[in-house]
Amino acid sequence: MPVEQVDMGGYTLIENASLANRNTLRVAARAKLLAEIRDASKLPELLDFPAVRNGRLLVLGEGSNVLFTGDFDGTVLVMATRGVQVESDGDSARIAVAAGERWDDFVRWTLGQGYAGLENLILIPGTVGAAPIQNIGAYGCEVAEFIESVEAWDIRERRVVTLDHAACAFAYRDSLFKHEPGRYIVTAVRFVLPRSRPLRTDYAGINEQLARMGVDKPAPFHVAEAVVHLRTSKLPDPSVLGNAGSFFKNPIIDAALADALKREHPGLAVWPQPDGRCKVSAAWMIEAAGFKGVREGDAGISNRHALVLVNHGKATGPQLWALAQRVMHGVREKFGVALEPEPVVIGTR
Ligand code: FAD
Ligand code: EPU
What we know:
single chain; alpha+beta; Uridine Diphospho-n-acetylenolpyruvylglucosamine Reductase, domain 2; Uridine Diphospho-n-acetylenolpyruvylglucosamine Reductase, domain 3; Uridine Diphospho-n-acetylenolpyruvylglucosamine Reductase, domain 1; 5-stranded mixed β-sheet; 5-stranded antiparallel β-sheet; 21 strands; binds flavin-adenine dinucleotide; binds uridine-diphosphate-2(N-acetylglucosaminyl) butyric acid
């Protein structure tokens, strides 16, 4: 089918666009219309096209946290805006970053500039605009801690809004944006980063890796190097093997259930939460239920990390989703715990 591409000055429109190279699970899917926007001031004009206004809309960054189970019969809006602006500097800096910047590039830039805070969050794929959506986190840190505000186009109000930290309602892999899907298009994120702060090295593996590196007085870039080592040793690289990172969230359950599970399964990792509940390791339960390394056609569960759903080649979205559902069923049968997918499942769900 012919694919028509039009440059509108500030954004490009592509009809019947392939999404295969725009999701890290490498699932074949198409969008009726794809709009790649480089100038955020053109958003109102773009959103006003009848074809866009009257149809479904999906905002997409790098597609590292989505599973397409079918074609998207609407407009996929890809944020490709760029820009990093230091608004004030001193003991800490306020930095506004455009939604389309790559998260990992930004983290490395902050470390190079001597700002602390984001070292534990190095090497997470995706865009800056997507970071607040699920409040990305790794190695004992969450991005919310450093977000002062989020600037977004509010589709309902048809205006730019600034949502302060409290309004964003950040929680583990959660935020306001997940509770009001389709309402906000994040255009920029404003961070506050200190010049120094106590390093977080207590997450399993970091101190051991620093010791292996021969570092006894770590700086932020040492922690970053340790995290890069841990991440690359555990997680498959999406450019080699399609995946979306953790496919399931670690469930947060009542302390009494966590205690009972821990008594029966002493190997289960349990992390007490500030509200008295407990987060438990989904990876451990998936492995114990026998799914680590399984393969059904080209859909599989990584043999390196049980939380990672992988595409060995030509798995379709429905095939990957069917395997994910079998994993959820298996864990519920064995442990009585419901797993929730972390990525957004888009299509025939
Ligand atoms: P996409 O996948 O394109 O979109 C994700 C969601 O955000 C969708 O609902 C989309 O509509 C929405 N969205 C994206 N941009 C915008 C915007 N500008 N405005 C409004 N909505 C938007 N995540 C972690 O938290 N911690 C990890 O350690 C981690 N490790 C990973 C490792 C690998 C190998 C992979 C592949 C993924 C990993 N992830 C991790 C998940 C992923 O990197 C993050 O969720 C990331 O923030 C997704 O960014 P993206 O630009 O690819 O978003
Ligand atoms: N484990 C297993 N089997 C495995 C893998 C891990 O039993 O195959 C056990 C480990 O032994 C350990 C526990 O699971 O006790 C935790 O493992 P890990 O440190 O790898 O962390 P995780 O809980 O599996 C979470 C995040 C990751 C993040 C890491 C590091 C979620 C859903 N996932 O994984 O985030 O990078 O911690 O902080 O919270 C993502 O969200 O996409 C992601 C990769």
